[in-house]
Design brief:
Radius of gyration: 19 Å
Distance between the termini: 34 Å
Mean pLDDT: 87
Structural class: mainly alpha
Length: 73
Amino acid sequence: MSFRTVNERYLLPASQILMVLGIVALCQPWSLSLHSYGVTIILAGLIGFNITSKIAPERSEETGAAMHEGARQ
């Protein structure tokens, strides 16, 4: 499994989930420590999302073959 596949399957969704968990931590009324780190959790997810979203997904063989055939005609 290549790094691009790992990024697409695990890292990108993990950063999105981290941002949502930061919002939940910020809005919950039970734990003051979670509330105080809510913005930090959101920022960590946002930075991770900005990094992982810039990595292009892996090209499949079908896409390359279809593009190559279109160039011949």
